Amino acid sequence: MRWLNTAVIIVLVAGILIFAFQNLQSVTVSFLGLRITAPMAVHALIIYLVGMATGGSLWALMRWAVRKP
User: What is the extent of the structural domain holding 46?
Assistant: First the structure.
C-alpha cells in the first residue's frame, strides 16, 4: 500500500509540473477592478488555494451545524 501511495503522489506531482511548464505564458485576470498579470499556472495555484480555504471552511461549518443540538 505504501508503494501505491508513493506512485500516486509521483504521478500527481509529474502532472502538476507538466501543467506548470506548458502554461508559462502570462495572462491577465480582472475581477472587481483588480488586475493580475501572471503565468496561468500561478492563477491556477491561487484558485486551488482559495478553493481549499473556502471548501475547508464550508466543511467545518457543516460539521458544526450538524453536531449542534
Answer: 2-67
